[in-house]
């Protein structure tokens, strides 16, 4: 297949693109920097000029300003929003206009869609939650819908935090954990879904090829854990004790709104669509998954 991919330089894209290439697919990268190899687009200016006769079999949308880095100022929140919603709409419209539109469009979203669900197990039929990220995810998924209007199969990937040595959550936590400061956050009872990068890319390949998948799909391992369980697993692997707990108020004082949306929120999402269609996770348990991605 010839696959058009945005955000290919990011954490997920830089693992996914070579994986798909190794299986014989051709990746055409959408690039925001004219000096890089690929098809140029400028989501901020609304520029995406694909030749009308471009032959693309599938499209994958992975773009978006980083959510986990930098304090959430008003400007940062606007960047988080527009770099997802406006760019997704531009991408979806761009492929919908082609003479021969691609068959499938996989578009990133997040499990932030569900907001705070407490202990409730969340699958793809669960309703949207409340909060900044839940609102963004709703709009983000709606923006991808522009491709559906011409019959493209659209899958909204509700991605959970990705475990990788090269980016995302782990490199931010590792220095603290190694220093013996791997702390439980808030009550530690809040759930978090997660997925090992290898399972994520294999699942995305599976989703590309499974025609029955459309609409929302939870991209997370089948065993979400509480923050305490996650912290203990990481500390055990690093041979460090889990001694401390940071109270919620302190976390909020340091991180602001991000504390509630990223670290104190409880999201117990499970990948019902993937598991019921026979996808097998290689790393379904947190401690083994962490050992695998950290090579420990
Ligand atoms: N990693 C996770 O744990 C996780 C969890 C849930 C959801 N997601 C979502 O999945 C997508 C890919 O995740 P990722 O971890 O690979 O993200 P990432 O490493 O931050 O990469 C995202 C890519 O988006 C492009 N980008 C950056 N700023 C942009 C902007 N202002 N406008 C348009 N494009 C911009 C960049 O690619 P170019 O420079 O090549 O354009 C960048 O490499 C993101 O939308 C993310 O929110 C990720």
Average pLDDT: 96
- CATH 2nd-level architecture of the domain at 2-164 and 195-220: 3-Layer(aba) Sandwich
Order of adjacent strands in the largest pleated sheet: 4-3-2-1-5-6-8-13
List the helices and strands in order: EHEEEEHEEHEEHEEEHEEHEHHEHH
Cα end-to-end separation: 36 Å
The total count of helices amounts to 10
The low-confidence runs, each spanning 5 or more residues with pLDDT under 50, are: none
What topology does this entry show?
Blueprint (H helix, E strand, L loop, with lengths): L1 E5 L6 H10 L3 E6 L7 E4 L4 E2 L9 E4 L12 H23 L7 E7 L10 E2 L9 H13 L8 E7 L2 E2 L5 H10 L5 E2 L5 E2 L2 E2 H13 L5 E5 L5 E2 H11 L7 E2 L1 H8 L1 H8 L3 E2 L2 H5 L9 H9 L2
Parallel strand pairs: 1-2, 1-5, 2-3, 5-6, 6-8, 7-16, 8-13, 9-12, 10-15
Antiparallel strand pairs: 3-4, 11-14
Structure description:
Residues 246-293 form the DUF1731 domain. This is TIGR01777 family protein. Pfam families: DUF1731, Epimerase. Belongs to the NAD(P)-dependent epimerase/dehydratase family. SDR39U1 subfamily. Residues 3-210 form the NAD-dependent epimerase/dehydratase domain. The structure is a single chain. The protein has 296 residues and is of the alpha/beta class. The chain has a domain at 2-164 and 195-220: 3-Layer(aba) Sandwich (Rossmann fold), CATH 3.40.50. The protein contains ten helices and 16 strands. It has helices at residues 13-22, 74-96, 132-144, 169-178, 197-209, 227-237, 248-255, 257-264, 272-276, 286-294, and strands at residues 2-6, 26-31, 39-42, 47-48, 58-61, 104-110, 121-122, 153-159, 162-163, 184-185, 191-192, 195-196, 215-219, 225-226, 245-246, 268-269. The strands form five sheets. Strands 4-3-2-1-5-6-8-13 form an eight-stranded mixed beta sheet, with helices on both faces. A two-stranded parallel sheet has the order 7-16. Strand 5, helix 2 and strand 6 (104-110) form a beta-alpha-beta unit. Helix 6 crosses helix 10. The radius of gyration is 19 Å and the shape is globular. The two termini are 36 Å apart. The mean pLDDT is 96. Residues 7-13, 31-32, 43, 62-67, 79, 83-84, 87, 108, 110, 159, 161-162, 167-168 line the site of NADP nicotinamide-adenine-dinucleotide phosphate (NAP).
């Amino acid at each position: 297949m010839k696959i058009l991919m945005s955000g290919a330089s990011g954490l997920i894209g830089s693992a996914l693109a070579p994986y798909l290439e190794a299986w014989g697919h051709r990746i055409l990268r959408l690039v925001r920097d004219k000096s890089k190899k690929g098809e140029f687009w400028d989501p901020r200016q609304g520029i995406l000029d694909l030749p009308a006769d471009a032959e693309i079999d599938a499209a994958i949308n992975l773009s978006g300003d980083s959510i986990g880095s930098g304090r959430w100022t008003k400007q940062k929140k606007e960047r988080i929003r527009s770099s997802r919603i406006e760019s997704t709409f531009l991408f979806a419209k761009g492929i919908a206009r082609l003479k021969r539109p691609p068959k499938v469009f996989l578009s990133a979203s997040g499990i932030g869609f569900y907001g705070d669900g407490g202990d409730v197990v969340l699958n793809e039929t669960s309703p949207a939650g409340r909060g900044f990220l839940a609102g963004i995810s709703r709009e983000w998924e709606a923006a991808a819908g522009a491709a559906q209007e011409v019959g493209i199969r659209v899958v909204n990937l509700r991605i959970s935090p990705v475990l990788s040595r090269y980016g995302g959550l782990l490199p931010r936590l590792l220095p603290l954990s190694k220093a013996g400061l791997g702390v439980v956050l808030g009550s530690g009872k809040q759930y978090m879904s997660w997925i090992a990068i290898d399972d994520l890319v294999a699942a995305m390949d599976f989703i590309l090829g499974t025609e029955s998948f459309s609409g929302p799909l939870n991209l997370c391992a089948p065993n979400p854990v509480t923050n305490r369980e996650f912290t203990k697993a990481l500390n055990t692997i690093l041979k460090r004790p889990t001694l401390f707990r940071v109270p919620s108020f302190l976390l909020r004082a340091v991180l602001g709104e991000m504390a509630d949306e990223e670290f104190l929120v409880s999201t117990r999402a499970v990948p019902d669509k993937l598991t019921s269609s026979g996808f097998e996770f290689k790393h379904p348990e947190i401690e083994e998954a962490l050992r695998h991605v950290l090579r420990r």
